[in-house]
Design brief:
It contains one helix and nine strands, in the order E-E-E-E-E-E-E-E-E-H. It is α+β, with helices and mostly antiparallel strands. It has two domains: 92 residues, OB fold (Dihydrolipoamide Acetyltransferase, E2P); 45 residues. It has a five-stranded mixed barrel with strand order 3-4-5-7-6. It is extended.
Length: 139
């Protein structure tokens, strides 16, 4: 859905969080919760209101918890599906500093090379532990 602003056409987009995944037939659908700010005319204050929408995930690349951009489809795919996932802004579990682009955990930066070494070391030590457990069960 496009909107005329002056003499140019702008595309309507929303930002929301994926809260549910579902597959209907050959469609990969995700439910995305977007937040609107509604005004209370009596108090003259804005209050948040949430709305859930079904979106088409063409690449099936989203996970529950991702922050995504929703864009309107030219044609609705189903009765209640009229938006699609444009792009993933923030993936769940991969927190990056917006200024430097480096991974961070809380307020500390994560050294990616030491993180990779730690994961490989944990993987090898877990496999040794699993072998010991299986040997103990056999005896």
């Amino acid at each position: 859905m496009a909107k005329m602003v002056g003499n140019r056409v702008t595309e309507m987009v929303r930002i929301g969080q994926v809260i549910k995944k579902n597959a209907r037939g050959d469609l990969n659908l995700v439910k995305v919760r977007a937040q609107n700010m509604k005004i209370d005319r009596r108090l003259m204050m804005y209050f948040p209101s949430k709305k859930d929408r079904w979106c088409l995930d063409e690449n099936n690349s989203t996970k529950v918890g991702d922050i995504v951009v929703m864009r309107h489809l030219e044609r609705p795919v189903a009765r209640e599906v009229f938006t699609k996932i444009g792009e993933i802004m923030f993936q769940v579990g991969n927190v990056r500093d917006p200024l430097t682009g480096r991974l961070c955990r809380g307020t500390e930066y994560v050294d990616e090379t030491s993180r990779f070494q730690e994961q490989t070391r944990r993987g090898s030590s877990e496999s040794v532990d699993n072998k010991k457990k299986s040997e103990n069960k056999e005896t």
